[in-house]
Amino acid sequence: MNKILGKCWVLILNLFPLSFFSITGALGSYTVVEGVVGHPVTLPYTYSTNGGVHTACWGLGECMLFYCSKSLIWTNGYYVYYKRSSRYQLKGHISEGNLSLTIENAVQSDSGPYCCIVAIPGSFRFMTYSLEIKPDSFGEET
């Protein structure tokens, strides 16, 4: 039975591009992070570097198999080599596995799903967040 199922998945993956398959669509879970307009907000993510450092990315939208949709940041495990905007920062020690994404000066339109994918040989680690940016209820200027 497993051989038949394996062949079916190979057939499906050959018939459809990988971009059709959404990881979060299959798992259906998000970690919710809340932020306030005008303030920085951080989406936390760390991984163990015991097996070495790895290429990783952050993207807007749900996690897709093997890549970040609408890329915000790419790192080779040591430094950021692509950043869509200076508002997106990795402020932790990247080479120690801290890939927490900080969005500076959050705006309401930053709300929505975000995905972090770490390319570990033989597998991928991913985390999907739902970011909710709320108005500053105190009306304070930043």
From TrEMBL:
Which GO terms fall under biological process for this protein? phagocytosis, engulfment; positive regulation of mast cell activation
- Which family is it part of? Belongs to the immunoglobulin superfamily. TIM family.
**What is an example of a Pfam family matching this protein?**
V-set
**Does the record carry Membrane as a key word?**
yes
Q: Which domain of life is it from?
A: Eukaryota
According to Swiss-Prot or TrEMBL, what is its membrane topology?
A: Single-pass type I membrane protein
Q: Where is this chain's protein located in or outside the cell?
A: Cell membrane
Where the record annotates domain Immunoglobulin V-set, the positions are 32-126
Which Gene Ontology CC terms are recorded?
Answer: cell surface; plasma membrane
Keyword annotations: Cell membrane, Disulfide bond, Glycoprotein, Immunoglobulin domain, Membrane, Signal, Transmembrane, Transmembrane helix
Q: Per its record, how is this protein called by name?
A: Immunoglobulin V-set domain-containing protein
Q: Gene3D superfamilies attached here?
A: Immunoglobulins
Q: Which residues form a coiled coil?
A: none
